[in-house]
Design a protein that fits this description.
heterodimer, A: mainly alpha, globular, B: alpha/beta, Rossmann fold, four-stranded antiparallel β-sheet, transport (chain B), P-loop_NTPase (chain B), amino-acid transport (chain B), ATP-binding (chain B), AAA+_ATPase (chain B)
């Protein structure tokens, strides 16, 4: 194989894995949108908050340290212990469930039956509140997140691919980050289990029923509050996974919350209501933007196409297929 | 099924008043009773308050910013006005909403299964069999997406879904809406069978007075938020006013619609 082709392949593979991470964020959106008709603007911030909480618990940070020190004149920052990664993740899950409970009890319950735009505004408020709250709780420094997932380039892949190159080509092997491979495996497992949950279990069915017709769901004895808490908890869990992956890649910092913006075109492409759509949409955008940058962007347009490519693609989709690739068709009987 | 003389009262609605959005008074004192094992019809035109009455009973009002401000709703001796719909379903009262409201993207069978949300696995299985014996058509279409089935099938699906909760009382809102007369007949016949064989009590809000009074045991007529008439169905059917205003029949047989329109005599019960 020629080196050019191998380079292209490398770009595509890395795009695919970036796409998996986009999918993961988009998945959180889809879950909440399906079950409560809310476009949850706070999903990105939830990922940031989850990552902050995870690091905070893991490194034994004192929550609200700054506030405590300011009020009591103390100087506490760390408890001085380290919590094992798995246990820290477990605690983070509990925190996100508590968060889901608070969101539903304090905000959603009071907004039952309101217009979607009002709920959307509420999630914008929630996003900015959480951003500040997260910084106050765990401070706003850029932190390193390490839960023991290996990272760095895979030498094995490099060694294998180097032999693929044709005789006499200057080729040094493919660079694939092990972290990306792990992220892909975990994301696939997460998606498969979520899809199975929605399709085959009683709460999953109830969740889809609520998504379809909340009033009717209420009338057959499904408690909307419970379903909402469940769904926001699931979205919180997805946020944790996304937060871990992105955090491990680029550190826990404010820009983590902006991945939510990358999820938007994914959703337009895949459809707001489809779990598989979120996945396929994420992959298409991941691969698409990397290949576009490599083949057209850098040689002809001066690069930096990754910033807008996804949105243009999404725009084209909006015009020709508004429900997305896999979105639920709006059923209209004639 | 309804045994006159020694009937047990299941549901008692006493003089309730319902206000939407804190300002709009919709029910101005509605009282009714639903006996165990009976079919009770709640009749009246558009905006008379039939749906609101049903929703007040099933507590679905809260989701629509409505509120029972006066009166009481008693089911089997307990006040139920403050319960949530899920509690009420567990107590055996379930509503089939107007306009069917099937879960469109779920299959017919999934719709039915959702109805058994409050029931155990064994009860669900049993219920599914029971529903399929009463609605063989649903069995044929069980893998179709509910949104793509016909209006009649959707109505059956909605009633079947309610049955899955193993209710004692079903509040059925406008089952005839948008259906061909033949289908209306079919659905009311199934309701009658369910009543007689499974002992389910029904409170049916209906505009189609003719059909409703043929299948019901007793009826109430609502007009602008008040009960204006009540009695056994057979009596209501013979009442000259009911004949005139709800059945379109005068003393001398069917009246032309044109005559009825220009004929604006005050109804006897208002004087």
């Amino acid at each position: 194989m020629s080196a050019d082709f191998l380079n292209l392949l490398e770009v595509a593979i890395n795009g695919l894995m970036a796409g998996v991470l986009y999918s993961l964020v988009a998945l959180g959106f889809v879950l909440i949108f399906k079950a409560s008709g809310v476009f949850n603007y706070a999903q990105g911030v939830m990922a940031l908050f989850a990552a902050q909480t995870l690091v905070g618990i893991q490194t034994g940070q004192v929550p609200f340290a700054h506030l405590i020190n300011a009020i009591f004149g103390t100087e506490v920052h760390y408890f001085g212990w380290n919590v094992p990664a798995l246990l820290a993740i477990l605690f983070t899950v509990l925190v996100m469930i508590l968060f889901a409970w608070i969101v539903v009890k304090v905000i959603l319950v009071r907004l039952v039956g309101q217009e979607p735009i009002i709920l959307f505004m509420a999630t914008i408020g929630l996003a900015y509140f959480m951003e500040g709250f997260g910084d106050m709780m765990w401070n706003s420094e850029v932190k390193r997140l390490d839960v023991g997932i290996p990272s760095g380039g895979s030498f094995w892949i490099e060694d294998v691919t180097v032999q693929w190159a044709a005789e006499g080509e200057r080729y040094f092997g493919m660079y694939v980050d092990v972290l990306d491979i792990w992220a892909t495996v975990i994301a696939v497992a997460l998606v498969a289990s979520l899809a199975a949950f929605a399709q085959y279990t009683k709460p999953g069915r109830a969740m889809r029923a609520v998504a379809d017709d909340p009033t009717a769901a209420l009338s057959v004895g499904i408690s909307l509050n419970k379903i909402w808490i469940m769904v926001w908890s699931l979205a919180g869990f997805v946020a944790i996974v996304a937060g871990i992956m992105w955090g491990a890649k680029s550190g826990v910092q404010f820009s983590l919350s902006l991945i939510a913006l990358k999820a938007l075109p994914v959703l337009m492409l895949g459809g707001f209501t489809s779990i598989s759509g979120a996945i396929v949409g994420g992959l298409i955008i991941g691969v698409g933007e990397k290949l576009f940058e490599y083949l057209i962007g850098v040689p002809f347009l001066g690069g930096a196409t990754e910033n807008w490519f996804a949105y243009v693609l999404a725009l084209i989709f909006l015009v020709f297929r508004p429900q997305g690739l896999f979105g639920e068709k709006i059923i209209e009987r004639v | 099924m309804l045994d006159a003389g020694k009937t047990e009262t299941l549901l008692e609605v006493n003089n309730i008043e319902v206000i939407y959005n804190h300002v709009i008074l919709v029910l101005k004192g509605v009282s009714l009773t639903v006996p165990k094992g009976g079919i009770t019809a709640l009749l009246g035109g558009n905006g008379a308050g039939k749906t609101t009455t049903l929703k007040a009973i099933s507590n679905l009002l809260q989701a629509e910013r409505g509120e029972v401000t006066k009166g009481s709703i008693i089911y089997r001796g307990d006040h139920v006005a403050d319960l949530n719909p899920a509690d009420l379903v567990r107590r055996g009262v379930i509503q089939v909403m107007e306009g069917r409201h099937c879960f469109e993207h779920l299959t017919v069978e999934e719709n039915l299964l959702t109805g058994a949300y409050t029931r155990s696995k064994a009860e669900t299985k049993e219920g599914l069999e029971m529903v399929y014996t009463y609605f063989p058509r649903l069995k044929e279409r069980r893998t179709s997406q509910a949104g793509y089935t016909s209006g009649g099938e959707q109505q059956m699906c909605a009633i079947g879904r309610a049955l899955m909760a193993r209710p004692e009382t079903i509040l059925l809102d406008e089952p005839s809406m948008g259906l061909a007369p033949q289908l209306v007949e079919e659905i009311f016949t199934i309701v009658k069978n369910l009543n007689e064989q499974e002992g389910v009590s029904f409170l049916i809000a209906e505009q189609n007075t003719n059909v409703a009074l043929r299948f019901a045991h007793q009826g109430y007529i609502l007009e602008s938020g008040r009960v204006v008439m009540e009695g056994p169905a057979a009596e209501l059917r013979e009442n000259p006013d009911v004949k005139e205003f709800y059945l379109g029949m005068g003393d001398e047989g069917r009246k032309s619609f044109r005559d009825t329109r220009s004929y604006r005599r005050r109804k006897r019960w208002l004087s």
